[in-house]
Design goal:
This protein is α+β, with helices and mostly antiparallel strands. The chain is globular and about 60 Å long.
Length: 220
């Protein structure tokens, strides 16, 4: 579970996002990061039990993303992220591929899964899988419990035009125009700070698992 001190550190970082304050509070950061690593370590075996494509041998330290921002091409020059991210890739996927992703951020934590902004070759393969087997995807995303947890899957960012090779009258054009294929569920602070946090997060991921299987099959 996440300690309240971890959230407190992130809250204060928002108002003190500079190197001087961060260095003065480096010990607090190290403890907060270790807390996030502990949560990742607790989640990994539970997710492996749900999704065998996620290795039980994942290193939780490597799954916790850097807090340092790349500001070279950004107008926002604050040097640190105001959250901790945990990327849990499935076998054969690099970070940012078909994965589960947990973000710890005061008042804005969430658990997600799927594939965010696939590269062109993968996007083409996923669209082809949708074209061939749309009913399989719709069975997953239109399930009542799925919609309750994650909302309307089709309301993600879409192309404004019809993707190349598909007809505007295609009955599944709303799915074919998607740029990402993500299931996203918000988490309250009291949920991430609960002793049952790892169990509850794994339970949500069990509902994401069929989506990840569909996406993995598309890329096979």
């Amino acid at each position: 579970m996440i300690q309240s001190q971890t959230l407190d550190f992130l809250k204060e970082l928002v108002d003190n996002n500079n190197r001087e304050w961060f260095q003065a509070n480096k010990e607090r950061y190290d403890k907060a990061r270790e807390n996030v690593i502990e949560l990742a370590a607790a989640i990994i075996p539970k997710l492996h039990h749900i999704d065998p494509f996620l290795s039980a041998e994942l290193d939780p330290k490597k799954c916790v993303m850097r807090i340092y921002r790349d500001i070279r091409f950004s107008k926002n020059k604050t040097p640190y992220k105001n959250n901790f991210g945990i990327s849990l890739p499935t076998l054969g996927s690099k970070l940012g591929g078909v994965e589960y992703y947990l973000q710890i951020q005061p008042g804005k934590s969430f658990i997600a899964g799927g594939y965010w902004m696939p590269e062109a070759e993968h996007l083409k393969a996923i669209r082809q899988e949708i074209d061939y087997n749309a009913d399989d995807l719709k069975k997953i995303i239109d399930d009542k419990e799925f919609v309750t947890l994650f909302g309307e899957f089709r309301k993600q960012d879409q192309l404004k035009t019809t993707p190349k090779g598909y007809d505007v009258d295609n009955e599944n054009i709303d799915l074919l125009k998607l740029k990402s294929f993500i299931a996203w569920h918000p988490l309250k602070d009291k949920e991430v700070c609960s002793p049952k946090a790892a169990d509850e997060i794994a339970k949500v991921c069990s509902r994401i698992y069929p989506l990840n299987v569909f996406l993995k099959n598309a890329l096979a």
